[in-house]
Write a structure and sequence with these properties.
Layout: E1 10-17, E2 20-32, E3 37-41, E4 48-49, E5 73-77, E6 83-90, E7 93-102, E8 106-107, E9 111-114, E10 116-124, E11 130-133, H1 135-143, H2 151-167
Parallel strand pairs: 1-9
Antiparallel strand pairs: 1-2, 2-3, 2-4, 3-5, 5-6, 6-7, 7-10, 8-9, 10-11
């Protein structure tokens, strides 16, 4: 049975590339059930990066301070979706919705695994417009063989699905529009170490 977490639990989000941890950081659970995992990334949260050779090279964030610099983010992910939706906050208000295209989450005993797949979409807070982000980076990765068989097509299908939801009024994430972190969610979790070992199973 897949693990479930309680509100306030600290879990671990791992991005897995080449079978190893590429980026790892803690999140605090807001809600978790069979339909959705909602977790909060607090400003100042420590981020760890894997070492050694990866087919995508070093993680681009490794050159910056290894903490989450922006205001807090509520990450919403549903089982099977090739994307998550992040409610990005600024000074306590909703700044925008950020659609992060990624591998469908795979639950672990400590949290979940996924992998960012470059493409993003930003939706204005009032829902009036949306804008694609990092399209050039995504297409360059496709051109240079950075994705495995079928992976790029899966990202494009997920992108088309999100556009259909936006245009047909099926924006399921809007039910979280008014959520704001209570005091305990603003606490910064402790750092998570990179294991360096190949991944496999529910770790």
């Amino acid at each position: 049975m897949e693990p479930r977490f309680s509100s306030g639990d600290v879990i671990v989000r791992r991005e897995i590339l080449d079978g190893r941890e590429w980026m790892v950081y803690p999140l605090r659970v807001v809600a978790d059930d069979s339909h959705l995992l909602a977790a909060y990334l607090a400003k100042g949260t420590p981020i760890a990066f894997g070492g050694g050779e990866f087919k995508w090279g070093l993680h681009p964030w490794v050159h910056f301070d290894h903490t989450w610099q922006s205001d807090g983010v509520l990450q919403l992910q549903r089982p099977g979706d090739g994307y998550s939706v992040w409610a990005r906050l600024k000074d306590g208000e909703l700044r925008d919705w950020y659609v992060n295209f990624q591998e469908p989450m795979r639950r672990t005993r400590r949290g979940f695994d996924t992998l960012d797949q470059e493409l993003d979409l930003v939706i204005a807070a009032d829902g009036s417009a949306y804008e694609w982000k990092d399209v050039d980076h995504f297409e360059e990765r496709v051109r240079t063989g950075g994705f495995g068989p079928g992976e790029a097509d899966a990202v494009r299908r997920a992108a088309a699905e999100v556009v259909r939801l936006i245009e047909r009024g099926g924006r399921w994430w809007e039910e979280w529009r008014d959520w704001r972190p209570a005091a305990g969610f603003l606490d910064v979790p402790g750092p998570v170490a990179i294991s360096g070992a190949p991944t496999g199973g529910a770790s």
